[in-house]
Amino acid sequence: MAPRFSFLGMGGIGKAMTRNIVLSGKLDEPLIIYNRTKARAEEHSASIGHSTVAETIEEAVSGSDIIWSCLQDDEAVELSFKLILQADVTGKLFVDSSSITPEVTNRIAEQVLKAGGEFVAMPVMGEPSMAEKRLLTCIASGAPGSVDRIRPYVVGVVGRAIIDLSGEEPGKGSLLKLMGNVLIMNTMETVAELNVFAEKCGVGVHSMKKLMDQMFPNTPYSIYNYRMLSGGYYQDTPIVEVSKALKLTAHVLELAKSSGASIKGYEAAIDHLKVVEDQAGGEADITGIYGAVRLESGLPFKNETQ
């Protein structure tokens, strides 16, 4: 019999992951979902079927063998596990896909293990449209036996690949996720700069798009490029809000400094994120980096004429 699942957090990634767990996870029992805003969970449950909505986190945990979470930030994760660990969690497996710092990941994992549960850090690389298509890259770290318990529900269910860090402390998975975020922001910075360069020198953004599509088809380059050129960076629902992205940057910069690493491209992207926050607010999308580079180059923040 398949384990009983619950999922905490109905953000864009969480909604896509739960839909795919229901569709491809071969669950015997309905998936239990929980979200702080209950109406959001109820609407999502009605759309995916084979699921129920828990009134509280405690209810979601008590009825499950495996509890998967994808929450907003360090604070949300710590608050949730403070509630969770008030109950008996013996034998239960907690899988966390939140983007949080390694220190918080290790602290939560230690508390869960001490209480008799199991813990796997499984942050994911990819944005909601990739999650919907099961194209997430999942980074799994923790005890090998615990990783094995969640493995059948990763590749082909919520993602396309698993980076297996079995045997590493859970925080290593969160650390690698932070490195992945550096890569993503550097990619956005590169795409934004090249588009502005192409526009300013007369090549044109559409010719640059043809070049990127040929050189890097079906990659983040083409995904972010489309979002920038289409105006999605200021019109569409954010992939990640600027304020949330900036929360983790100070930690990454301190880590780079303490280890003696130079990450100048990332620092440039951070400076541009701060411009986006000033221009469009903390709820703006991180691909607004394009607008910031445009401003810096004497163009309007919005590319409304393209």
UniProtKB/TrEMBL annotation:
Residues annotated as the enzyme's active site: 177
Gene3D superfamilies: N-(1-d-carboxylethyl)-l-norvaline Dehydrogenase, domain 2, NAD(P)-binding Rossmann-like Domain
Keywords: Oxidoreductase
GO MF term set: NADP binding; oxidoreductase activity
Domain of life of the organism encoding this protein: Eukaryota
Family: Belongs to the HIBADH-related family. NP60 subfamily.
Protein name as it appears in the record: Putative oxidoreductase
Source organism of this protein record: Lachnellula hyalina
Name of the gene this protein is made from: yfjR_0
